[in-house]
Amino acid sequence: MTGLNVLLETSILLKAVVVTAEVAAGGALLGVVVAAILALLRMSDMPAVRWAVTGYVEFMRGTPLLVQLLVIYFGGPQIGINLEPLTAGIIGLGLNAGAYISEIFRGSIQSIPRGQMEAARSLGMSHWLAMRRVIWPQALRHAVPALGSSFAALVKDTSLVSIITVNELLLVTQQRVSSTYRPIELYLIAGVLYFLLTMLVTYAVRRWERQYRWSI
Question: What is the CA radius of gyration of the chain?
Fold first, then answer.
């Protein structure tokens, strides 16, 4: 493959990187929201709620993400839920990531001394107000490094949504391989693009960690 061909193929794959970034960003945002809800529910005083949330988290962590994506996309129409591939991919990644990130949040919240909650309550704060103003800011600071690893892993997991025909980086690479019969070059280019995207996410999280540390 000549240098011109490499540039041409790279430009084609770069367009797919945009879709990969959209899937990763959407999955990460949904995952954080789901994780925050799960972490709070898992610390509920109601045993039934804790058991239900624990069951969900363990199930999502104990089954392959690929299977979850297939169930959401191909199983949805069976119960009247028809999702576009991109939407199904984001939902699948978000629900899966939420289960993992919820454990990060739960551990970070539990690392905060109980005396801080008691002090906040003694000042007249409700439980939820104390969580929002006192506990969560500190817990989030503890969680940021682990969140960086989760987000980086999420970027790599976006390759799995190719199985439900999302035109992200891996699927487009496979299509170009079928057309050019140059698997080594194209898969190497895709690997480099995944690496650069992952490093960009890691760098952004580290900058956020430094800024967040100084803002508290």
Answer: 21
